[in-house]
């Protein structure tokens, strides 16, 4: 059975990608959650991941330590990770790659923190441009391939890569088109996303680095997480 090492569900956007993909495609795996340690503690992720980062997939003697590499590793073993039509698949791979290597302002300013609601005011222009690009990209996929997911009737890897952005929409409330909003609501209502979200809310840990990032983003309107221990 695959073992998937991940970090805190509240913060770990990279972990969410393979986790939600495997849940949606019903790929059995054992979840191994290792919470972020404090800045002064040794990085516990090095026990299983050569980069000291999560996610990390273990399949027997194979160690796969990057979310995109995990996706391709799975695509070689199970069906339906990518859309079957080559043209659609090329689009899905482009959008996935754009997410994997881009949107640096969005990632930097709007870090994933599932349980809080934040008002960014004013929205920096560079950030607005990246949200606008996300909106265009989602509209392009949803119109071109007919939805309800980004590149087909079913959830594929490209949806998994944008799942953390969907939680960021919930937290930071950027202005988006009606079609993108519908897509966000569709993803948020998936049982797998609900499972992740409820687990994120009930986590007892707080990681100061991530908390500080979210404090820098703007004024907190709500913190829906259980009280930290
Ligand atoms: N390119 C990697 C990035 C993974 C990554 O940055 N993971 C973060 C967690 S969300 C991490 O492990 N950070 C721990 C650290 O940098 O010490 C991937 O796609 O998996």
Could you say which small molecules are bound to this protein? glutathione
Report the span from N to C terminus. 33 Å
Strand order in the sheet with the most strands:
2-1-3-4
Can you count the beta strands? 6
Number of domains: 2
Per CATH, what is the topology of the largest domain?
A: Glutathione S-transferase Yfyf (Class Pi), Chain A, domain 2
Major β-sheet, in short?
4 strands, mixed
Order of helices and strands: EHEEEHHHEHHHHHE
Mean pLDDT: 97
What's the helical proportion of residues?
A: 40-55%
Overall radius of gyration: 17 Å
Weakly predicted, low-confidence segments = none
Q: In words, what does this structure look like?
A:
The two termini are 33 Å apart. The strands form two sheets. The protein has a four-stranded mixed β-sheet with strand order 2-1-3-4. A two-stranded antiparallel ribbon has the order 5-6. The protein has helices at 13-24, 67-75, 86-101, 104-109, 125-145, 157-172, 178-188, 191-202, 208-217; strands spanning 2-6, 29-33, 56-59, 62-64, 116-119, 219-223. It folds into two domains: 2-75, Glutaredoxin; 86-196, Glutathione S-transferase Yfyf (Class Pi), Chain A, domain 2, CATH 1.20.1050. With 229 residues, it is an alpha+beta fold. Strand 3 and strand 4 form a beta hairpin. The mean pLDDT is 97. The protein is 49% helix and 11% strand. The longest helix is centred in the middle third of the chain and has 21 residues, at 125-145. Glutathione is lined by residues 7, 12-15, 43, 45, 52-55, 66-68.
């Amino acid at each position: 059975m695959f073992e998937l090492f991940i970090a805190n569900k509240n913060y770990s956007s990279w972990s969410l990608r393979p986790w939600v993909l495997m849940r949606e495609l019903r790929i059995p795996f054992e979840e191994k959650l290792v919470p972020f340690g404090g800045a002064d503690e040794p990085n516990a992720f090095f026990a299983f991941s050569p980069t000291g980062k999560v996610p990390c997939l273990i399949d027997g003697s194979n160690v796969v330590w990057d979310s995109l590499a995990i996706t391709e590793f799975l695509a070689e073993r199970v069906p339906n990770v990518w859309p079957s039509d080559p043209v659609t698949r090329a689009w899905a791979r482009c959008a996935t790659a754009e997410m994997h290597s881009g949107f640096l302002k969005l990632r930097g300013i709007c870090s994933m923190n599932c349980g809080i609601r934040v008002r960014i005011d004013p929205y920096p222009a560079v950030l607005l441009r990246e949200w606008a690009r996300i909106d265009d990209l989602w509209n392009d996929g949803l119109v071109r391939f007919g939805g309800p997911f980004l590149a087909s009737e079913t959830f594929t890897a490209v949806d998994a890569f944008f799942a953390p952005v969907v939680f960021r929409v919930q937290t930071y409330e950027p202005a988006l088109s009606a079609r993108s909003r519908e897509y966000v609501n569709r993803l948020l209502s998936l049982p797998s996303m609900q499972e992740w979200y409820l687990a994120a809310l009930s986590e007892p840990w707080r990681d100061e680095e991530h908390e500080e990032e979210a404090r820098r983003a703007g004024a907190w309107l709500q913190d829906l997480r259980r009280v930290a221990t």
